[in-house]
Amino acid sequence: MTQNTQHLPIGHILGGHYKITKILGQGGFGIVYKVEDKHQLNKILIIKELFIQSYSFRDNDKLTINTKQNAENLIKKIKQDVIEEVNLLSKIQNRNIVALLHLP
User: Fold this and answer.
1) Each residue's pLDDT tens digit, 19-47
2) Does the 13-89 domain belong in CATH 1.25.40?
3) Domain boundaries along the sequence of the chain
């Protein structure tokens, strides 16, 4: 996997309790992280961050995502589509389908 400097750093805490332990992959629409849930010992989760490489960049703090002005509406639409898909898939409970959660 080719990594760039756009991913969050290993050890960064998301949502107050999801600690990034590994960058699993990245593509045109997002970056996938393996995280540990500090509130549930030994619970490993996968988090996908919406990060559209053609239109997104991180601020100097390396944490905040910004978008190019001309892409704002496109990114809002993609984000809404992803949220709708996760909400729909999160209602499905089957041992052969990975469980999905939407984290704000």
Assistant:
1) 999 999 988 778 999 999 988 877 888 88
2) no
3) 13-89
